[in-house]
Amino acid sequence: MDYEARNATEAALLDYKTGIGTFTKKMPKLAELYNAFTEECFKEGVLSQKQKQLIALGISLYSQDEYCIIYHTKGCLDQGCSEEEILEAIGVTAAFGGGAAMSQAVTLVQESIDELKQLKQ
Sign of the C-alpha dihedral, residues 26, 32, 37, 43? Predict the structure, then answer.
């Protein structure tokens, strides 16, 4: 079944899902171990899942990983982060990562937040 994305954010999320599906078919054991590891890392613990998503978004911005920026922006929203919480985390990342982190934040993150909010309506 073909599905047409409604915006750029959804298209990136679908691209990632397709890519990870292909990788899983080709490398099932590796994908299984990777997925188990990441699921464990993002479980509720001393840090909440919300805090972990904010950390992951900051790291994604710092490393300039556009797919992860979109994925973890969605993760932040899914975990109940407000836009203000996301923007504050962006500020901390920009303080460490400088202009490169800020440029991704004020473009890609903001676009993703806006488009993900539209999808929920």
Answer: positive
